[in-house]
Amino acid sequence: MGEKKGRAGNPMPTNLGCQQPNASFADRFEYDMSRIRLRADGPDFKILRVSRVVENSPATEAGVREGDVVSAIDGRPTVQMLT
Fold first, then answer.
1. Tens digit of pLDDT per residue, the chain (83 long)?
2. Range of the domain at 41
């Protein structure tokens, strides 16, 4: 049997080290408690702007609206995070 080839004719790996689900695989988890989506904006992408807010979320309860600019997170200026 010959080895498998990819689209470019390169050999394809036969063992990618696939992982098996563990006991916690089906458990729900919270990955985004804020329920907002941010995007880097401006000519140098150093402005964090709210592009989406999920209704009835902690963000809407706090008054966050689409188009708002996030200037700091946990007291740290966002411009420092985007450099």
1. 555 555 666 665 655 566 677 888 788 766 677 789 999 999 988 899 999 999 988 889 999 999 999 999 889 998 888 77
2. 36-73
66 part of a folded domain: yes
Strand 69-70 to 72-73 pairing: unpaired
Q: Distance (Å, rounded) from C-alpha 55 to C-alpha 61?
A: 9
Other beta carbons less than 10 A from residue 33's beta carbon: 9
∠83-80-66 over CA atoms, to 5°? Answer: 95
Give this prediction's pTM.
0.58
The pair of three-digit structure tokens given for residue 57, joined into one six-digit string: 């979320």
Count of domains forming the chain: 1
Tell whether 45 is covered by a domain: yes
